[in-house]
Amino acid sequence: MADALLAIALQRLASGAEQHIGDCRLTLVLGVDEEIRSLTDTLLSVRDVLEDAERRQVKEKSVQGWLEKLKDMAYQMDDVVDEWSTAVLRSSRMEGAENASINSKKKKKKVSYCVFSPCLCFKQVASRHAIALKIKAIKQQLDVIASQRTQFNFISGLSEEPQRFITTSRLDIPEVYGRDMDKSNILSRLLIGETCQEIQSEIYIVSIVGTGGMGKTTLAQLVYNHPDVKDHFDERIWICVSDPFDPIRISRDILEILQGESPNLHNLEALQQKIQMCIAGKKFLIVLDDVWTENHQLWGQLKSTLNCGGHVGSRILATTRKESVVKMMGATYVHSLEELSQEQSRALFYQISFFDKSREKVEELKEIGEKIADKCKGLPLAIKTLAILMRLKNNKEEWESILNSEVWQLDEFERDISPALLLSYYDLPPAIKRCFSYCAVFPKDTVIEVDKLIKLWMAQNYLNCNHVISNKEMEVVGKEYFQYLAGRSFFQDFEKDDDDNIIRCKMHDIVHDFAQFLTKNECCIIQAFDMPQGIGFAEERRTKASFQKVRHATLIGLQRYPKFFSTYKMKNLHTLLHEFSVISSIDEALPKLFQHLICLRALDLQQNLSITELPKEIGKLIHLKYLNLSYCYSLTELPETICDLYNLQTLNIRECIALVELPKAMDKLVNLRHLQNFLTVALEGLPKGISRLNSLQTLEKFIVSNDGDNECQIGDLKNLNNLRGELEIRGLRKVEDAREALEAELKNKIYLQHLTLEFGEKEGIKDVAEALQPHLNLKSLAIWSYGDTEWHDWMMRLSLTQLKTLELSHCNSCSHIPPLGELPVLEKLEIKDMKSVKYIGGEFLGSSSTTAFPKLKKLIFHNMKEWEKWEVKEEEGMSIMSCLSLLKIRGCPKLEELPDHVLQRTPLQELVITDSDILLQRYKQDMEEE
Question: How far is CA 810 from CA 233, 632, 663, 814, 836, in A?
């Protein structure tokens, strides 16, 4: 971890020196070049012993203290280099602006002269002088730390980073192993009839208790999703409780599942009454996963709610590590989850570690493997983690090294961490260690958005080193790092998109505990509670010095008085994630917060409904690279000072529905890579300067404006060829002609995957649409409000042969559908609100004599008010919709029947018909039988 921080410092120091060496304003400080070279040499010498130091820190407190000092120094260096780079970037822009002004005056007056502002030059020299002095001070402190390493007799040696990354394989790892009897016992307790306890109005509670990593949550999930359980209970509710036990938060989560939407309630009594209304007369199962509290009063607040209202036969299933929690809850049945037997442990270890190995290699390693499996003491998580590590190692010497590691002898493990996790962690490259340990900033049981995680890693400079060496985009490096960690079981509970990419995940609580162990002075989760004088913290025991060591923090809780007094002590904070709801105004608290936390790299204020405007003081956060304001529904404007954040990489304003405009000087955000502005419905234009942000990769919505002098027109897309992911273009009715549309050069946006074109129902738009042809490898396309009667040529030619998803919506003037059956890989097709379509026939299938819609799985027609007839004329030997599984018809009142071929000769599994009376009457019996 320290190694990764020093690597970042070295790379950034070298980069800064290369850019600014010979800069007369920096070299005014005598000897600064020599200081930088000496500092670099010292860093390299210290880094050479870090591998040994990090292994020894677990059992040697003095080594741990030395590493803490070194990490603190690395953070300080990163701050100074950031300040240095920002100062140079700001001054170069100021010089550019001044030169532009001078050139303008020269043209007007026709006089040749060149004068630099004395005030500007003085400020630049003063700034560089201050930075150079900071570099000298850091060098002196680092010399002291480096000299101390001799007393520890560290062994030198730096492991090389792997040349390639081993990502998740298709190995089938069983979720539950050796737990059939446990599953049967718990199912029997959940499905039995009413008991004497229930007759006495006490709800029946089943508890699964066992040490961490035993598989309690996985077993509970298996039971929760069992078909018999689904049939038996009217409502099933899964709640991750964790620590602290917050009755209001838990009640809100329960109500959100019952209602299907987030409740607008913050009072516990109101929440309890609403829950009781929702479960009245219903038989429910509620799983409370990972319970830690032993507080009878807190538990009683939740239990009383569930006792009053539910049907007899309802159940609570709780998982916990502590016997004392089971007693406090008053569990009816306690199921103690025991370790796997030796035979089961070895079988699970073999299944994973020997995957894809030859018979000869298995015979060579089998005896060592048995001994390693036995050391895991029957813990499924430890066995899986270590088996995955060993699967990547083929040499007998490597297996023996793991078996004989001194890690197994450390007493610390019985209290805090798993030896299997530590061995797997030691095997990670330094940069990936840093990325893993950063995840301690997330509260336990958090659903982690992978895209957000990678952007947070970027903001901390964790991806820069590999990015520079490999010449890959930082986002690509981040994805590789994540896949590497996922492949080693550091993440779990994956949620994937249609392209099989992991988009969300969780960390096992044992893995999360391990990450917190590694970062106990750097990362903290702070439970905030209401106090009229400000936010109180559960961690007030921290001293002022320890607060200053915190670099990454998450605040959680429900607030009425957000004043952040204790937060101000964390003046060196690099990350602040804000995960509590604020009922009253937060606006007056933010300026002071921004004045105190000037080292921030990442700031997340999402879902704060009370923020109406962002204060101008945000411009003081010169290091800021990640700013998340998504779902701040009351936010109306952003200050111009936000454009002073030259380092900003990500600005997320998704669903800021009241935001009416963006700052005019956004062209100053030269490092901006991601502008996430989906569903900013009040925005009517984008600042002209966005067209000059050549590093921009994400621009979710582009708005064509009438104000061509100050806001973007379609041609301003021309140079944004790094755009990728999704792009929605609105306001195309304002494009005058095809020549103007061609300036956008959409064909050159080859990294775009999903494109939406909104034409505003303007007539005579066909040529403009033709000029907006995207690149041929597009995966998803939506065309909204196309106003012409004839489709543009590239839609009729169907040149988008890689298209998987297509939506045609509100194209009211078109009376026919393009020959979409010729799209070879189309999987989902939605046709909506096309009022002129009365007949769909052979032209829909295309001209191919052999196949039509060969990959189509989902076909949806919605609100086709005038559609009367749908024909599929079969030809001998022709395959039509051979993969169709879902057909959904909604709001088609005049459609008389569905083609026999679609109903009888496709593998249709689900037929949904709503608001279509004629069809409903005709196919009611078929749908009931289905």
Answer: 42, 30, 33, 9, 10
Query: How many other C-beta atoms are found inside a 10 Å radius of the C-beta of residue 794?
Result: 16
For residues 572 and 546, the answer to whether their CB atoms sit within 8 Å is: no
Neighbours of 858 (CB within 10 A): 17
Judge contact between 885 and 911, C-beta under 8 A.
no
pLDDT tens readout for residues 114-147: 444 444 444 555 566 777 788 888 888 888 888 8
Q: How far is CA 885 from CA 311, 589, 826, 844, 845, in A?
A: 38, 54, 13, 19, 17
Residues 6+ apart with CB under 8 A from 691: 712, 716, 717, 718, 719, 720
Q: Given a cut of 50, is residue 42 above it in pLDDT?
A: yes
| SS3 readout for 48-91 | CCHHHHHHHCCCCHHHHHHHHHHHHHHHHHHHHHHHHHHHHHHH
Cα distance from N-terminal residue to C-terminal residue, the chain: 57
For residue 526, which amino acid is it?
I
Kindly report, residue by residue over 342-388, the tens digit of the pLDDT.
Answer: 999 999 999 999 988 899 999 999 999 999 999 998 999 899 999 99
The neighbouring-strand residues paired with 280 are none
Q: Is 856 exposed, middle or buried (0-12, 13-18, 19+ CB in 10 A)?
A: buried
The type of residue at 583 is: I
pLDDT digits (tens, 9 = 90+) for 639-648: 999 999 999 9
Residue 904, judged by CB atoms within 10 A of its CB (0-12, 13-18, 19+), counts as: exposed
Q: What is the per-residue pLDDT across 1-24, written as a single tens digit (0 to 9) for each? A: 566 667 666 666 665 555 554 454
Contact, 771 vs 795, CB < 8 A?
no
Residues whose CB is less than 8 angstroms from the CB of residue 120 and which lie 6 or more positions away in sequence, other chains included: 91, 94, 95, 98
Cα distance between residue 207 and residue 330, in whole Å? 9
Distances (CA, A) of 472 to 235, 476, 626: 48, 6, 20
110 Cβ contact partners less than 8 Å away, ≥ 6 residues apart = none
* Dihedral in degrees, nearest 10, Cα atoms 350, 351, 354, 356: 170
Give the span between the Cα atoms of 443 and 515, in whole angstroms.
11
Rounded Cα distance between 286 and 295, Å, is: 20
CA 668 – CA 290 distance, rounded (Å): 47
Residue 239: φ, ψ to 5°: -125, 125
Question: Residue 420 in contact with residue 376, Cβ under 8 Å?
Answer: yes
How far CA 232 is from CA of 125, 235, 314, in Å, comes to: 75, 9, 10
Eight-class DSSP state of 341: P
* Sign of the Cα pseudo-torsion (479, 480, 481, 484, in order): positive
In sequence order, the 6+-apart residues with CB closer than 8 A to the CB of 785 are 758, 759, 760, 761, 809, 810, 811, 812
Residue 649, pLDDT above cutoff 60: yes
CA 449 distance to own-chain centroid: 2
Residue 141: left if φ>0, alpha if ψ -120 to 50, beta else—which one?
alpha
DSSP 337: P
In the chain, the amino acid numbered 553 is A
pTM score: 0.88
The burial class, CB within 10 Å (0-12 / 13-18 / 19+), for 156 is exposed
Going by C-alpha positions, the residue among 708, 773, 719, 786 that lies closest to residue 741 is 773
The C-alpha atoms of residue 688 and residue 710 are separated, in whole angstroms, by 5
CB-CB neighbours of 764 under 10 Å: 9
Lowest mean pLDDT among 123-127, 267-271, 545-549, 693-697: 123-127
CA-CA-CA-CA dihedral for 737, 743, 747, 752, to nearest 10: -100
d(C-alpha 755, C-alpha 781), whole Å: 5
Distance CA 855, CA 824 (A): 7
